[in-house]
Amino acid sequence: MPTLATLTENDVRSIFGPDAVERAEVHLAAGKIIERDLAGADQILAYWDDSPRAPESELYNTADGIGYRCECKAMRAGRTCDHVVALALAWVRERETFQDLLEADEAKFDSGDESEDGEWEDAPYGGAMAQVLTPAPTTAGRAKPIDAREDYVRLLSLLTLPKLREIAQRRNVVISGNRREPIVEALADALSRPESIAEVWPSLSRPARLLLGTLALIKIENPIYPPHAREAFKLLEGKAAADFDALLEELAGFGLTVSTPYQALEMPRLLPFQLPPDPDFIPAHPDGAKLKPRAAAPAPLDFTLLTTRLLLMLKAGGDRFRARSARQPHPLEKSTFGLQGWPHDPDEIDALARDRRNLNALYGKALRILPSPPLLVDEAFDEVCRSVGGDADRVDFALRLLGAAGLLRAMPGQPLEVNEDGFSAFIGQPPLARALTLFAASAGLNNWTELDRLAALHPHAPQLRHTPGGYDQGYAHLLVQLGAARSLLLSYLRRAPARRWIDFEGFVARARAFRINPGFWPMLGSMWYLDVNDRRPNVATAADWKATYGPFVETVLAGPLAWQSAIELAYRGDRLVAFRLTAFGAHLLGQTQHFDAPRTEQAGGPALALTPEGDLLLRIETAQTDVLNLVTQLGEARRDAPGALIYRPTPAGAARLFEAGWTDEQLIAALEQALGAALPETLAQSIRAWWRNFGTLHLYSDVALVELADDYALAELLAGTALSQYLLYRFSPRLIAIRPDGVEALKADLVKKGYTPKMINEELRMKNG
């Protein structure tokens, strides 16, 4: 299967077909790509000049080839869009036009570039949901933040002058004159303020609030059509639906919805994530006063501390921790269109291969999809679970979150690679900010699905099945759609008041009103579905909706949300009957702006201690951010202990701190403060000696230097060759260091790709005889 590095135009035609390529040519010729981005060697993105917004499309490497997604209507309807094909053609033909996002992000970290209000300018995890969840500064930055004011300007510009005046009157905005532009600008200023929705909320009638919440959840990025909205609202609130048109007028009068020239509805893009909790929108459990959680929720920062331990351990582990190799497909899967790229049950594939009659009727078959194995190979994964003190599900989820947050890179069969700049930025944050970073990453996680945990929850849970009848619907596409379903579920959940027991079955049943949004639940019984008693479900019916969407919601609640201390669960026997948001969960979901995280205390001494060998023992749970950052920069991790890591100070680590502005005496004082005792004289003398020698001489061994001809060659080589596998350091856009063991392989790759590298050492050897 091709990768981005090896993709050719023939591959594009083979994957997508000649008709799709012809349509994509039109997009390219029209110059509709307004931005082309390269996110490392494994992902490319583009933004498109398509009204009413600029959708984002993406191609990325997977274990089985190339995956893709797009935000446009065609992709959300389950078809491959022309954007994706045009992006692939642009990459093949004009690779040099793609901007390297990771280099831009590294420059941002180096310069400390922040916006005026202290928020980081990029939304690293993509989509409005993540922006509301206070994204943090990792190097994964991909998505454009939504400008709420510009969004309001765009929508208000569609309205007539009398309508603008009506909104101004209802929202108490002072306007004057008959010129539309200043009126639109004044209204956009007022309506785009974060507190604007809270101010207008008490003025809305109860049915109008319910309708606004319905519209927010059936909307993706496209306009809402009133007949669809009416159908959804009728399921949600049958009696109030009789006044549907009047309620729409009420919302429009406050500037919360806008009718487009095509008789569709639009709303501000951030509005769905700014609506307050609403007791009428989410059904309470009738016996809430009697319910008790099966077990207390973990302490708010437990999962964050586990993930921090995990990251520190991986950072110190070097080559010890390798990602699992890519799954080897069955020969039938390799040769049969429609089976490629899916983790099918091998027993079912074997049976299919032996029965020619069944093979001829392949597209009528439904094949079981196996759960994804852990990210790490078994031995390494078991070691990690023991060391960080977490169960397998939680640790694997944490690994994938670190990848989604741009902190970790996992290539099949290769050692895990920690992003150095992302690591420093993450460790440098307070624990609560780290928790928000991880939660925001979970909203867009698309290489893992909660459905893999169904069998662990219930022995007779529905099974995920795939019908190989589609042209371009791969497993990666399914995971992306399930990630979108998780994000929309979080949007629904954030309407629930905290500390109030929510009826689980009522919550699931009410969600059926939102299935009009195709992103809300992709299990629609076509190419993939959750098997219900050996049959395809019909999610239009209440029973099948409960049997399919219900297990998904339960796995999200009992898995990621419970692990992150966002909710508590109440059971009767083995049946989940209710759940409630914790105060911490309300903060994670953006309901509250402030949360006082409890301090974690641990017996056994201060956060930093000395071992008998003179190493530094770092207790991760009790260490403050500055101590974590200091010790991980200064030392090389030697081994792990329960709840701690042991670091040995090294000259290279001291040099890193000296380069950052520390002096020897400042470093000694900081260590003594963290230890609560004087530093051993031998260590203090070493630090002073390292300081005296700092900057006088730098020796580099076991590296090979590569000098490039221009500032653009590096991005091109990273994208089109195996350079990223051997890269050690970038001194400048034209000078890099690589591992010497990769010189010959890289040279052969460069020659194969049409480059003519000049080998200085070879010339020197020839000259010296």
In short:
With 769 residues, the chain is α+β, with helices and mostly antiparallel strands. Helix content is 43%, strand content 12%.
Detailed description of the structure:
The chain has 769 residues and is an alpha+beta fold. It has 33 helices and 22 strands. It is globular. Mean pLDDT is 81; it is low at 104-128, 133-143 and 762-769.
Q: Tell me roughly what share of residues is in helical segments.
A: 40-55%
Strand order of the largest sheet: 4-3-2-1-5
| Number of strand segments | 22
Taking all Cα atoms into account, the compactness measure Rg is 28 Å
End-to-end Cα distance, whole Å, is 46 Å
The proportion of strand residues reads 5-15%
Q: Estimate the global geometry from the Cα principal axes.
A: globular
Major sheet: 5 strands, mixed
Helices and strands: which structural class? alpha+beta
**What is the mean predicted local confidence, pLDDT?**
81
Q: Please give the count of helices.
A: 33
Contiguous uncertain segments of 5+ residues: 104-128, 133-143, 762-769
